[in-house]
Amino acid sequence: MKTLKEMLAEAREVIPEEDPAEIERRRAAGEPLALIDVRDPDEYRDGHIEDATNISRGFLEFRIGGAVGDPSTPVVLYCQSGLRSMLASKVLKDLGYSNVINLKGGYQKWVQSGLPVVRDVPMTPDQVQRYSRHFLLSQVGDKGQRKLLRSKVLLIGAGGLGSPTAFYLAAAGVGTLGIMDGDVVDITNLQRQILHTTADIGKPKVESATRTLKALNPDVNIIALPTRITVDNVMDIIKDYDLIVDGSDNFETRYLMNDACYLAGKTNVHGSIFQFEGMATVFAPNKGPCYRCLYPTPPPPGLVPS
Amino acid sequence: MLPGVIGTIQATEAVKLLLGIGDPLIGRLLTYDALGMRFREVKLRRDPKCPVCGESPTIRDLSIHRQTSDACATTENGHGEREGALATTAAR
User: What is the distance between the alpha carbons of residues A206 and A183, in angstroms, rounded to a whole number?
Assistant: First the structure.
């Protein structure tokens, strides 16, 4: 009969271990890592690494296929101290997963290294009902909904583009929405800027936006920023958000948002429209082109149609 | 109605990016022609000579926006998602 010590030694021969800092670096670089927390559900709820999927060790063989379809995907396993997950890693390796890594020192060392963790707060009965249709979607589920609720999105502009974006993001339960717009509601806005109503004419757009969105979903924390984005405030504002959605209506802002988002490493969801045409794309720093790859400099003012 | 289509696409992309699911519109420009009711897709590539994200960038901070804020300011203010035109047509 093998001792535990011998089993661990055997596993260590075939399973590489990586430090928490190295795993965090790979995660931050956007490498396709699957993180599996093999502890029991109550341990997971008390605190876990963001994005980690909880599959208790006892269910590993049954559920790993649903969580990681491609056996060549790098899979990082962790438990509390790194021992249970070492044995679990060996099992995955035997199942045919070719790139299994054990988190050295486990969750304990991750926390001691000062790396970020998340804690699952129980959803209220209202939230369970409100987001029930999301739970049915396997790509969203309970885990995805919690992630949306923790997410912070900044909308540049609460006009034609910002209105529908804000409506749907609030409805979907994105936890924090920053809404930046220095304008007041004008009657000419109302034919397309659906966040605002006739009674809002003359009021700041962020004020009517906040009221409309809060009425739709009181879960959402709305941060109203009743000012125009400028070179002086942009870096300080975007640093607090996970994602920027640019629904601005002028080239000056688009170039400013492009440059600021690139420099701050923030992904920018870009959209613009003209008459009966529109376009959308995503500028993700160093993963794809930026606005200046398309158009290096703004057009001269005379060329801008009015 | 047109901004509803584009704004909703932006919201969809935002949720996909937050959740890390699907194929985001990175490196792809989706264009929408409401009168023809056609969507088209243009592949976008990174420009190694890009002044911001290229190999030897000349824009390393936001100071250019202080110098040129008058030069690229537009007269349109408030309710015109208008200037997108140039970008849209130039992409075709």
Answer: 8
